[in-house]
């Protein structure tokens, strides 16, 4: 298996660098995984194995931690990640309709990535901007007071 | 300390950054150097000014408080020359007046009392000197020079401050337990992962006034004898993490953190730990597991963290708001704090008001205020002047209270008695168009997904609840479902390991108690009174109002709408998937739900 990815980054180098920055201790496991996730977009199994080797933690435990947290991805994600806030304040002001429209436009469900790897759709528990719900975040851009009709326009801003 | 005659605050809200806030900062600094003003005027970053979508990038110039908006780097030389060299305000760059307010907080509303939020939106969170100017770290100095740890604990106990995370345990007593534990190492943890969905006050405090939390933690560390502390912050709040790290660095530079704090021989240091998106990590034992680098799964208590916490050592955990109250209690005294609130619930509480209310956002009110005052006086009433149906307090583990509870005083005991909880302070107001069965189902979907899976009642019980609720919403409810739900709620509540499972049935139990008729309508009459549940409604076109413009037919994704141009259209209920698009696009309000 090649450790080169389309984005040209070498997973083993990223892992080694993350471990070096944070230190080889168990309590740094989550920060290390977060760092790899940020650098690489997700944590491929090869990366998880390398973390286990360097930190001397059983592989099963590294996998178990990586799959427990929502913000760590063990599957490749799309170029743009859409976070949809599914908290109650967003829900009661029309979040459900926005969610339906999002799924309809992208033709994928929560946690899935479009076949062309452009979009990933992720639900999050709360983005903390409940005053302007419904809220979605695409990459680092936040959109508040979203209505279903706005979805196509918002999506069209990304390529 | 350098003295500047003027401070320029540049908004680095994500939207402003996208529109070139950093280029503005560079241009400002370049121009100030060119004009020889760099020692007189300081350029600072701030989180947000006005409405970034309309006005970004924008700046505020103090002490005048002039708000300039929609700036481009080309405007800067002229602005600097006019405003800073010649002292003339440049009218053409000014933002419209009323947009200066901080939208999330705004000016204090009727009945608001700000203790925890007093500095939010007022000081620069990235500048420790701003905090010090507002009596910051005075309480720490007082504690370290004049008070013994016992006296600190006594003061906090007498104030009546209870944990603002929800359970409402007396803070002073919690500290005492931890102080009494004998160990070579003790820890202080700040639970900043507790953002219940719908409760963003902690984010706001961390982003706007991080030092008040840090100061509270140092005081707690002194009181219980801890040397190391952690702030476990939600990963969903990247700006809070950044602000905290800056604040900790500055506190170290000023000698408030680290070895030999203020020369008193007391040492304590702090570190930020980022969560990774697991709701259950707001539970204290799960949070500690996560700091240790494990799956964030709770464990049974006892032993309580005060005896055996992080790495088996005594640990004190409080949330953001609890710590932020501490410096004020030390400075102004226990009696001052205890003068606010009710007999058993003292002080103020921040709430995140959301949902169908006119003024959404953060509020801080004295405990004991009624729900009616919160919804109508502080929140301005229901949006579009619709009727009030319910208020949900306490996040996903809370309950929905109907109108007859509007005069309920808000304190820990009254809310619990009514079948809800204080939680960390989320409040969702719902108008008459909300289906309570759907809301219960919605919360169950959430807890079911967030259950860590360690204990069976929570993992499987919530799933069964969700299945039954989904069936009811789909019009497949059966006789006996209500009883089944009640029984399950009881069992999950008593048998679950942690607060998540124990609180999970609350939304179902409270809606069953107060809105049972809606469940009955769904199950026995196959009718959704609020017209929300898709399986139980049909869309219809009112022939008299329809103009035959064909917009609905063209937008229908399943071609369920037919009709001639300029003639009333019809919806075929067998094909219709009830997506509601036709209703959204109709310009003549000719489509109704039955």
Labels describing this entry:
heterodimer, A: 159 residues, alpha+beta, Arc Repressor Mutant, subunit A, Glutaredoxin, 2 domains, four-stranded mixed β-sheet, 45% helix, 11% strand, B: 594 residues, alpha/beta, Rossmann fold, Ubiquitin-like (UB roll), 5 domains, five-stranded mixed β-sheet, 17 strands, 39% helix
Please state the second-level CATH architecture of the largest domain in chain B: 3-Layer(aba) Sandwich
Helix content of chain B: 25-40%
How helix-rich are the residues of chain A, as a percent range?
A: 40-55%
Largest sheet of chain A at a glance?
4 strands, mixed
Fraction in beta strands of chain B: 5-15%
Percentage of residues in DSSP E strands of chain A: 5-15%
Domain 4Fe-4S ferredoxin-type (chain B): 537-566, 567-594
GO molecular function, one term (chain B): NADH dehydrogenase (ubiquinone) activity
Family (chain B): Belongs to the complex I 51 kDa subunit family.
Keywords (chain B): 4Fe-4S, Iron, Iron-sulfur, Metal-binding
Could you walk me through the main structural features you see in this protein, from its secondary elements to its overall organization?
The complex is a heterodimer of chains A (159) and B (594). With 159 residues, chain A is an alpha+beta fold. Chain A folds into 2 domains: 11-68, Orthogonal Bundle (Arc Repressor Mutant, subunit A); 80-157, Glutaredoxin. Chain A is 45% helix and 11% strand. Chain A has helices at residues 11-22, 29-40, 45-55, 59-68, 88-106, 150-156, and strands at 80-85, 119-124, 136-138, 141-143. In chain A, strands 2-1-3-4 form a 4-stranded mixed sheet, with helices on one face. In chain A, helix 1 runs parallel beside helix 3 (45-55) and helix 3 packs across helix 4 (59-68). The longest helix of chain A is centred in the middle third of the chain and has 19 residues, at 88-106. Chain A is elongated. Chain A starts with 10 loop residues before the first helix and ends with a helix. In chain A, 43% of the residues are buried. Chain B has 594 residues and is an alpha/beta fold. Chain B has 5 domains: 6-93, Glutaredoxin (3-Layer(aba) Sandwich); 128-339, NADH-ubiquinone oxidoreductase 51kDa subunit (Rossmann fold, 3-Layer(aba) Sandwich); 348-431, Roll (Ubiquitin-like (UB roll)); 436-525, NADH-ubiquinone oxidoreductase 51kDa subunit, iron-sulphur binding domain (de novo design (two linked rop proteins), Up-down Bundle), CATH 1.20.1440; 539-593, 2-Layer Sandwich (Alpha-Beta Plaits). In chain B, helix 9 (201-208) packs across helix 10, helix 18 (456-473) runs antiparallel to helix 19 and helix 19 (481-495) packs antiparallel against helix 21. Chain B is globular. The chains are: A alpha+beta (159), B alpha/beta (594). At the A-B interface, helix 2, helix 4 and helix 5 of A face helix 1, strand 9, strand 13 and helix 17 of B. Chain A: Belongs to the complex I 24 kDa subunit family. Chain A: This is NADH dehydrogenase. Chain A: It comes from Anaerolinea thermophila (strain DSM 14523 / JCM 11388 / NBRC 100420 / UNI-1). Chain A: Keywords: 2Fe-2S, Iron, Iron-sulfur, Metal-binding. Chain A: GO terms for molecular function: 2 iron, 2 sulfur cluster binding; metal ion binding; oxidoreductase activity. Chain B: One of its GO terms (molecular function) is metal ion binding.
């Amino acid at each position: 298996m090649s450790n080169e990815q389309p984005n040209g980054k070498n997973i083993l180098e990223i892992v080694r660098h993350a471990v070096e920055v944070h230190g080889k201790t168990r309590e740094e496991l989550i920060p290390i995984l977060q760092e790899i996730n940020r650098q690489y977009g997700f944590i491929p199994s090869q990366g998880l194995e390398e973390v286990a080797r360097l930190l001397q933690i059983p592989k099963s435990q590294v996998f178990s931690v990586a799959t427990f947290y929502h913000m760590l991805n063990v599957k490749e994600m799309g170029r743009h990640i859409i976070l949809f806030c599914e908290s109650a304040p967003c829900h009661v002001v029309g979040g459900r309709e926005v969610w339906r429209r999002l799924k309809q436009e992208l033709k994928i469900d929560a946690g899935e990535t479009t076949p062309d790897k452009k979009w990933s759709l992720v639900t999050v528990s709360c983005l903390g901007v409940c005053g302007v719900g419904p809220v979605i975040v695409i990459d680092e851009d936040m959109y508040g007071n979203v209505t279903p009709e706005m979805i196509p326009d918002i999506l069209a801003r990304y390529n | 300390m350098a003295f500047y005659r003027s401070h320029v605050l540049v908004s680095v809200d994500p939207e402003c950054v996208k529109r070139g806030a950093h280029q503005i900062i560079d241009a400002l600094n370049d121009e100030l150097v060119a004009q020889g003003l760099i020692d007189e005027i300081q350029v600072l970053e701030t989180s947000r000014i006005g409405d970034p979508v309309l006005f970004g990038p924008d700046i505020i110039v103090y002490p005048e408080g002039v708000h300039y908006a929609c700036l481009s780097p080309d405007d800067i030389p002229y602005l600097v020359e006019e405003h800073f060299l010649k002292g003339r305000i440049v009218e053409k760059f000014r933002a419209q007046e009323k947009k200066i307010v901080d939208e999330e907080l705004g000016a204090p509303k009727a009945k608001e009392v700000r203790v925890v939020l007093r500095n939010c939106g007022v000081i620069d969170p990235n500048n420790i000197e701003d905090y010090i100017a507002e009596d910051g770290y005075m309480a720490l100095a007082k504690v370290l020079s004049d008070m013994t740890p016992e006296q600190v604990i006594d003061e906090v106990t007498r104030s009546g401050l209870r944990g603002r995370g929800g359970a409402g345990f007396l803070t002073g007593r919690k500290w005492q337990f931890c102080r009494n534990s004998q160990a070579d190492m003790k820890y202080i943890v700040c639970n900043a992962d507790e953002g219940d969905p719908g409760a963003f006050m902690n984010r706001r405090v961390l982003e706007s006034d991080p030092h008040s939390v840090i100061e509270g933690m140092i005081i707690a560390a002194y009181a219980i004898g801890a040397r190391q502390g952690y702030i476990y912050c939600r990963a969903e709040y990247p700006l809070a993490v950044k602000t905290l790290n800056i604040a900790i660095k500055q506190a170290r530079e000023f000698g408030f953190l680290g070895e030999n704090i203020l020369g008193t021989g007391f040492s304590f240091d702090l570190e930020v730990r980022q969560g990774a998106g697991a709701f259950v990590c707001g539970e204290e034992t799960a949070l500690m597991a996560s700091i240790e680098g494990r799956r964030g799964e709770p464990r049974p208590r006892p032993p309580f963290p005060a005896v055996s916490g992080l790495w088996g050592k005594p640990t004190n955990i409080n949330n953001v708001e609890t710590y932020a109250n501490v410096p004020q209690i030390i400075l102004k005294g226990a009696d001052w704090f205890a003068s606010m609130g009710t007999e058993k619930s003292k002080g103020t509480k921040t709430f995140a008001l959301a949902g169908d209310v006119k003024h959404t956002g953060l509020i801080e009110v004295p405990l004991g205020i009624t729900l009616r005052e919160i919804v109508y006086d502080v929140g301005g009433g229901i949006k579009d002047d619709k009727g009030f149906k319910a208020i949900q307090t306490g996040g996903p583990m809370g309950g929905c209270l109907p109108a007859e509870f509007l005069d309920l005083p808000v304190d820990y005991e009254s809310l619990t008695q009514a079948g809800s909880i204080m939680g960390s302070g989320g409040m969702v107001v719902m108008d008459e168009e909300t289906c309570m069965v759907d809301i219960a189902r919605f919360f169950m979907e959430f807890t079911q997904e967030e259950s860590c899976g360690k204990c069976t009642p929570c993992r499987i019980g919530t799933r069964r609840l969700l299945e039954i609720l989904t069936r009811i919403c789909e019009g497949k409810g059966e006789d006996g479902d209500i009883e089944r739900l009640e029984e399950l709620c009881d069992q999950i509540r008593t048998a679950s390991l942690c607060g998540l499972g124990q609180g999970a049935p609350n939304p179902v139990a409270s809606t069953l108690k107060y809105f049972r008729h809606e469940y009955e309508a769904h199950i026995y009459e196959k009718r959704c009174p609020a017209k929300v549940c898709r399986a139980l409604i049909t869309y219809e076109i009112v022939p008299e109002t329809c103009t035959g413009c064909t917009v609905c037919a063209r937008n229908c994704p399943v071609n369920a709408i037919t009709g001639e141009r300029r003639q009333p259209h019809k919806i075929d209920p067998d094909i219709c998937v009830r997506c509601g698009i036709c209703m959204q696009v109709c310009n003549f309000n000719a489509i109704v739900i039955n």
